[in-house]
Write a sequence for this structure.
C-alpha cells in the first residue's frame, strides 16, 4: 500500500478562531492562509479549517487553523472543536461593543472545553474602521492584562497585524513545547534512567490474581 509520510514540518499546532458572529474570523483566516479578503462574506456554517506553514525560531511549523460560526445556533460541536487546540485567537469587532463584552463569555467557554495550557491571544479586528470605534485600546488592554491574554488590534481588510497575531501565538506555543521537552530531558538525564510510572505489585489475592497498584 502506498502512503506518504509528511516530513515537511517540525511541529503541527492547532489554533481555534472564536468570537461573536461577524467579527471577521473567516476573513482573518483567509487573509492569513491565502491572502484573500471578502467584503461580503457569508456566516460560517459548521467547521472549516485551513493551514499555513511558516518559520518560527528556525523551526518549520504548520499551523492548522479551525474556524466555526460565532452564531449560537450553529455551535453544537464545541468539545470536538477545542480538542487538541494549542492556541486560540479570540476576536471581537472594535466597532461593536457587544462583541467585546462577550469576550468574557468566550473565555469561559475556553476554560470549560479547552486544555488549561492553551495560549490565548485577543484580537480587536476592523481597526481600519477607526471612525466607528466603540472599544478603546485602553479598555482592551485593561481586560487583556486582567485576564492574562496577549492582545493586538488587527484588520483583515488592510492585512494589518494578522500575520503578527498568528506569529505571536505560534511562538508562545513553541516556547511552551520547548520548555516541556527540555524539562523532560533534564529529568531523564539527572537519574540516567528514563522516567516512567512506578507500578507496585502488592499481595497475591486469594484467587491468585495479582493486584497492581500504581504510584508516580
Ligand atoms: N472593515 C472591515 N471589515 C471586515 C474586516 N474583517 C471582516 N470584515 C467584514 O465583516 C463581515 C463579517 O466577516 P466574517 O469574516 O464573515 O465574520 P465571522 O466572524 O467569520 O462571522 P461568523 O462566521 O458568522 O461567525 C464581512 O462583511 C467582512 O467583509 C476588517 O478587518 N475590516
Ligand atoms: Mg465565519
Amino acid at each position: 500500500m502506498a502512503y506518504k509520510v509528511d516530513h515537511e514540518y517540525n511541529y503541527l499546532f492547532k489554533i481555534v478562531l472564536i468570537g461573536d458572529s461577524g467579527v471577521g474570523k473567516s476573513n482573518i483566516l483567509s487573509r492569513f492562509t491565502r491572502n484573500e479578503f471578502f467584503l461580503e462574506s457569508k456566516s460560517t456554517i459548521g467547521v472549516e479549517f485551513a493551514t499555513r506553514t511558516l518559520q518560527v525560531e528556525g523551526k518549520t511549523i504548520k499551523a492548522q487553523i479551525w474556524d466555526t460560526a460565532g452564531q449560537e445556533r450553529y455551535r453544537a460541536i464545541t468539545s470536538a472543536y477545542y480538542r487538541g487546540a494549542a492556541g486560540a485567537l479570540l476576536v471581537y469587532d472594535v466597532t461593536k461593543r457587544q462583541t467585546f463584552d462577550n469576550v468574557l463569555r468566550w473565555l469561559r467557554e475556553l476554560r470549560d472545553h479547552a486544555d488549561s495550557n492553551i495560549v490565548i491571544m485577543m484580537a480587536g479586528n476592523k481597526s481600519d474602521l477607526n471612525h466607528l470605534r466603540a472599544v478603546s485600546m485602553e479598555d482592551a488592554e485593561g481586560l487583556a492584562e486582567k485576564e492574562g491574554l496577549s492582545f493586538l488590534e488587527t484588520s483583515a481588510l488592510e492585512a494589518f497585524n494578522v500575520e503578527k497575531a498568528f506569529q505571536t501565538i505560534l511562538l508562545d506555543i513553541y516556547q511552551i513545547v520547548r520548555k516541556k521537552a527540555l524539562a523532560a530531558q533534564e529529568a531523564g538525564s539527572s537519574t540516567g534512567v528514563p522516567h516512567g510510572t512506578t507500578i507496585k505489585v502488592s499481595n497475591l489475592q486469594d484467587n491468585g490474581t495479582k493486584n497492581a497498584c500504581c504510584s508516580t
About this structure: The CA atoms of residues 16 and 88 lie 5 Å apart. Residues 2-185 form a domain with the Rossmann fold fold (CATH 3.40.50.300).
